[in-house]
Fold this protein.
Amino acid sequence: MLLRQLEYLVALAREGHFARAAESCYVSQPALSEGLRKLEEELRVPLVYRERKYEGLTPEGERIVVWAQRILADRDAMKSEVVALRSGVSGKLRIGSVPTASTVVSLLTEPFCTQHPLTTVQVQTDLRAADVFDKVQNYEIDAGITYIGKSLAERFEFVPLYLERYVLLIQPAPGVGRLNQVTWAEASQQPLCLLDPVMQGRKVLDAVFEEIGAPVRPRVETDSIASMFAHVRTGRWASVVPHSRLHVFGVPVGMQAVPLVEPTRTERMGLVVAKRDPAPVMARALVDIARQTGIEALLAQVPR
């Protein structure tokens, strides 16, 4: 069995297309197909449903690809460990986050790159919470920033980063004074633009509104926090946004970010990495940075 054959299988599962899988492996499609055929012969099980086009992995293939991902990840981790022992941490850190935490990523990547100057960073910031866990588990990213849950503790290691708080973002009419706070019930009466219902950030808000007996039906729903800000800018809509979004750009001129109370709701946000022993050097290095940085203190003041 060749590691290259395992790479072909993982690429096919990821791309869902023979030609794209071959391209990602820098080989011809016949070479990829032949490598997969030889792997099936050696394992004595069919791995791929073959028709005129890719039809998916067989049940055996679904199991084997998990082992292949793990073997390839361990190979990469071993090579990185050797390089780190010889010349320090180097290579590419792959980190993903849910959209609501996208502006927090830089609070980790800056000290990480400062401490490890031989590294580069690739960031994905449009992932759903489930995608973050899936990509960490499938070794597609080294770490993610997302909502911390107890149910996944057996498979993942969590490093708490900060408590997410929520503000009502509004653009008041000229002459309207500054608000000190607003209740969730009062916010529910606003014409709202909120995140898409499938996103965890929206589910958190829906749970609060349901809890106080004021479920909302937003006029506008979007998968982009930037789009939410743009809709508030029109003066027609309000939005509920995480306070962490304000630490980079502040509150846009003419808008107000009003703390939401009754209840004061917070969500634990943290860094997640796969539980592996030994842990990959890149993940270890980022976890060390996360424990030293003090992101909660950096986000303590909500601009208004």
